[in-house]
């Protein structure tokens, strides 16, 4: 199988002309039995920010295409910053809410650099110098935890995570038995756009907001903590003392 270094060397070379996965496989003489593995390698390199896919599914050097791969960190006021995944790139890219496309907090995204950064004409970012997210490589929010609310015209979930600043709409049919004020888990079925909020389906009602057990469940789901443990791990806990010895206190 071809190495990552050889793929990067080709795509980032000066004489390289954009090619898609099939053309790259032909160039490297990849056997049909290894084609799927080769495509996986290309996807992994893109997640690392080494290469990026553009129109016609062709792969290029991100820098030459004025693109950058990073993790979107959102602010509760709606805007965010893309943190580069590649080492050696220190500048975070500001992204206005209207330039996020369908991306959400913690997604791995491809962002088009603002002209002020691309042309290197200024050292500091202007307030309106926003990058534009053009693709989402990996979603971080298949589900969200929040409070279910009913209004006169629609139902929605207000996420607990302040970085998910936009409500998630839920149709009457997809609300199941959730009541106003319940803490719920919603599965996102349709990603947000510039003008429309995300839409989802209630997959679990945790209980009434504010109840101790419900709060604990909410935290577990929000931070993706393990809810169940293997038997061997539980067995090891049987030997742990239930009280703290005086020596440990002192």
Strand residue content: 25-35%
CATH topology of the largest domain: OB fold (Dihydrolipoamide Acetyltransferase, E2P)
Q: What class, by secondary structure content? A: alpha+beta
Spell out the helices and strands N to C.
Answer: HHHEEEEEEHEEEEEEHHH
| Number of extended strands | 12
What low-confidence regions span 5 or more consecutive residues with pLDDT below 50?
Answer: 118-126
**Helix run count:** 7
Tertiary shape: globular
- Rg measurement, Å: 23 Å
Mean pLDDT metric: 89
Largest sheet: 5 strands, antiparallel
Distance between termini? 59 Å
Total of domains: 3
Strand numbers in spatial order across the main sheet: 5-4-3-6-7
Structure, described:
The protein is of the alpha+beta class and 250 residues long. It has 3 domains: 4-60, no CATH class; 66-138, OB fold (Dihydrolipoamide Acetyltransferase, E2P), CATH 2.40.50.690; 143-222, OB fold (Dihydrolipoamide Acetyltransferase, E2P) (Beta Barrel), CATH 2.40.50. It contains 7 helices and 12 strands. The protein has helices at residues 4-11, 21-27, 35-47, 115-118, 212-222, 231-237, 246-249; strands at 52-53, 59-60, 67-74, 80-84, 93-95, 108-112, 132-138, 143-150, 155-159, 168-170, 182-190, 199-208. Strands 5-4-3-6-7 form a 5-stranded antiparallel beta sheet, with no helix packed on it. Strands 8-9-10-12-11 form a 5-stranded mixed β-barrel. A two-stranded antiparallel ribbon has the order 1-2. A hairpin with a 4-residue loop joins strand 8 and strand 9 (155-159). The model is unreliable at 118-126 (pLDDT under 50). One of its GO terms (biological process) is mRNA catabolic process. It holds the Pfam family OB_RNB. Residues 70-120 form the Ribonuclease B N-terminal OB domain. One of its GO terms (molecular function) is exonuclease activity. Residues 156-229 form the RNase II/RNase R cold shock domain.
